[in-house]
Amino acid sequence: MNLLTKFNLILVVLFGTGLFLVSRFAKEFLLENARQQVVHQAELMVESAQSTRNYTVEDLKPLLDKLPEQPEFVRETVPAFAATETFNRLHKDFPEYSYKEATLNPTNPRDRANEWETDVINYFRNNPGKTEFVGERDTPTGRSLYLAHPMSAKKPCLVCHSTPEVAPASMLRTYGPNNGFGWNEGEIVASQIVSVPMSLPVSIADKAYQRLLIYLVGIFIVTLATVDLLLVFIVIRPVQKLADNADRLSKGDLEAPQLDIRGKDEISALTASFNRMDVSMRKALAMIQDE
User: Fold this and answer.
1) CA separation for the pair 252, 238 (Å, rounded)
2) Count of domains forming the chain
3) Are residues 254 and 115 located together in one domain of the fold?
């Protein structure tokens, strides 16, 4: 095995080890970055829903309350209904995105928490200090990330959700007296849950990871070719010339020309030493021949 082959094998082993470590950490970094982007999207969705709720409570409902004749129960004045309806319109164009105010005992049946949403609500009930929960789950459209915030019953909520006797009659006519009652002030009864698909960010991260690997391999190939050329011209060829001249000298060939000395590196020093040895050998052989 010649010197160039040995050197290339060493470089390949070192680069392979480095590529494995870099690719592993890079993939984890890219996937985590993709996940943070999804979390950020979910946070924006929650804030948007909260803005809709605040607008309904602070602006829309007070306007209706000022009317001389109170209209029948208007679902659009309920913050949960307004926020959900707003996101349902988004859901038509982006079915992978969803928003729900999942409730253990809702007035509107569509808000009733399913099995995994109930687990999220119970998590907040069992951990009162927690204000956010981030998780992932598999859906028919792929992996999805969900962000959840707890929702507790406040004093204004009890006007409609304490007992059927104190609830507005128009609300009872719309939803009936069997659901959405028995809430207690301060009790966690629901959770804002937004779901955001992870397929697109993860796909972008995978493509970035593949491009990174291609670039790294390309850089290694160019670097290896450049190093090989430098090694051939700076080390291997001068050493080969030294070996050829030493071989000719060992066979008694005194006609071989001395090697050129270029530069002041170790190879040049070795060449100068060989030339001095060559001169000494020639003189020694000449003296022997004269005798």
Assistant:
1) 21
2) 2
3) no
Q: Is the dihedral of CA 267, 272, 277, 279 positive or negative?
A: positive
In angstroms, how far is CA 214 from the centroid of its own chain? 19
Residues pairing with 249 in the sheet: none
Are 190 and 216 within one domain?
no
* pLDDT tens-digit map of 210-228: 888 888 888 888 888 888 8
Residue 102 β-bridge partners = 191
Residue 28, domain member (yes or no)? no
What is the Cα–Cα distance from 240 to 220, expressed in whole angstroms?
A: 27
Packed helices 266-290 and 237-250: angle between N→C axes, nearest 10 degrees:
10
Burial environment of residue 121 by CB neighbours within 10 A (0 to 12, 13 to 18, 19 or more): buried
> Packing angle between helix 199-231 and helix 3-55, nearest 10 degrees?
160
Q: Is residue 31 part of a domain?
A: no
Residue of 236, 238, 235, 256 lying closest to 247 (CA atoms): 256
HSE-CB of 120 using CA atoms within 13 angstroms: 28
**Would the pTM of this model clear 0.90, i.e. be above it?**
no
